[in-house]
Amino acid sequence: MRILVQEEPFDLGAESEAFASARHDMGAIVTFTGVVRDRAGGDLDVMEIEHYPGMTEKALSKIAQDASERWSLGDVLVIHRYGRLAPGDRIMMVATAAPHRRDAFEAAEFLMDYLKSRAPFWKKEHTRQDAGWVAAKDEDESALSRW
Amino acid sequence: MDILYFAWVRERIGLPKERVTTQAATVSELVAELSAREERYAAAFSDLSALRVAVDQELTDFDASLSGVREVAFFPPMTGG
């Protein structure tokens, strides 16, 4: 299990390659990548991501631990960035390795659902005109009920 | 104990962190104490349903005890991913 919270960009190709090559007893690797999405008007300058140093790492480790107990997983990787990002920048990735694909897919979805509303990150959108905090969505909270 | 504020709570109160000495037994009592201090606190804590709280870096609720606690953090619902 590897949890990284960092300001600098990560190399999606290198991380995915290393993760997928690490073991020979895993038949399925799922990766998910989150990207800064521009607004409909194309006016997003910066996506600022704030986090709670210390609690962030603990919360992510707990979520990854919970996933490992629930599904048959060989490994979990979570990388999440903070700081000032631009549209198109990669914010985060998760990867799961499992003997079989269903465990890898479900665990990756579980990780993403929990990471959205239980890991202490907050997003602020800056446009040329103004800036505003991104509100949490009700559906993100209700997504947890399926687990 | 240390009190931390994040996102718009930090902006509304005007600081990221402060150290307070309090007799408050629960998070709710601490909120009442802070709200009575100044308008900017009262404004930030006016709608607790819009806030989340962590005690010693664990998400909890406003009834949580502060006994032996070192760090309390207030913030809006999280938007990771």
Q: Tell how many strands the DSSP assignment of chain B holds.
A: 5
Low-confidence region ranges of chain B: none
Query: Distance N terminus to C terminus of chain B?
Result: 30 Å
User: How far apart lie the N and C ends of chain A?
Assistant: 21 Å
| Topology order of chain A in helix (H) and strand (E) letters | EHEEHEEEHEEH
Poorly predicted regions of chain A are none
What structural category do the secondary elements of chain B indicate? alpha+beta
By DSSP, the count of extended strands of chain A is 8
Which band does the percent of strand residues of chain B land in?
A: 15-25%
Largest sheet of chain B: 5 strands, mixed
Which pair has the most extensive contact?
Answer: A-B, 27 and 16 residues
How many helices of chain A does DSSP assign? Answer: 4
Structural summary, described in words:
The complex is a heterodimer of chains A (147) and B (81). By secondary structure, chain A is α+β, with helices and mostly antiparallel strands. Chain A contains four helices and eight strands, in the order βαββαβββαββα. The longest helix of chain A has 18 residues. Chain A is globular and about 50 Å long. By secondary structure, chain B is an alpha+beta fold. Chain B is 30% helix and 23% strand. Chain B contains three helices and five strands. The mean pLDDT of chain B is 97. At the A-B interface, α2, α3 and β7 of A face loops of B.
